[in-house]
Predict the 3D structure of the following.
Amino acid sequence: MAEEKITIYGHQASRASRPYWLLREYGMTINEDFIEVDTGGPVTGYNEVRDTSEFLALNPYRLIPVMKHGEVVLYESQAICQYIAEYLGGPLCGQDLAERARINMYGLSSISNFEPNFLPMVFRQGGAEGRAKFESNLEPLLNALNAELKDRDYLIGSERGRFTVADVMMASTIGQYGRAVKFDFTPWPNVKA
Ligand SMILES: N[C@@H](CCC(=O)N[C@@H](CS)C(=O)NCC(=O)O)C(=O)O
């Protein structure tokens, strides 16, 4: 296993915020315990990092975040989060095959079910009509997640569950986009909590 520090390519106002949040949950400090390469973006101003041959060799799709850890190179924010949790271990990661599989399931669900309906609202796609459509798409999805979270605090683990990378992946999708678009989670109290 690589000894070198984990490097994340991506500015913090992007999906790179997901691995950054997770690394902080492990008590790690940016640019001390892990490295941020700022690729520029809406907040920091675009820069040329993503057009360098070094970056494109890591991710030919030119998207952020990208993680480099020794020989291990990953793109896709949720895959990066799962790698970090597996690497750093402890209660935040899956403790057995079933937990790891369910963590993967929630990572996929966050970006296949929820993100396609939250993200367009951030960009005000379709105006008021678009917003109404995305909210209506989200209703059955949030009903389902709210049911899954009945009598639970977290997605993974027995009884009320324990905080894991699954919650980071789900909340960094639903929670962050939800806050950005002032989404009203009141009808889904377990999701809101
Ligand atoms: N499914 C990918 C999506 C990656 C993605 O679309 N990243 C955006 C930033 S959040 C990007 O790189 N967009 C092009 C750009 O910023 O130039 C993931 O979760 O990592």
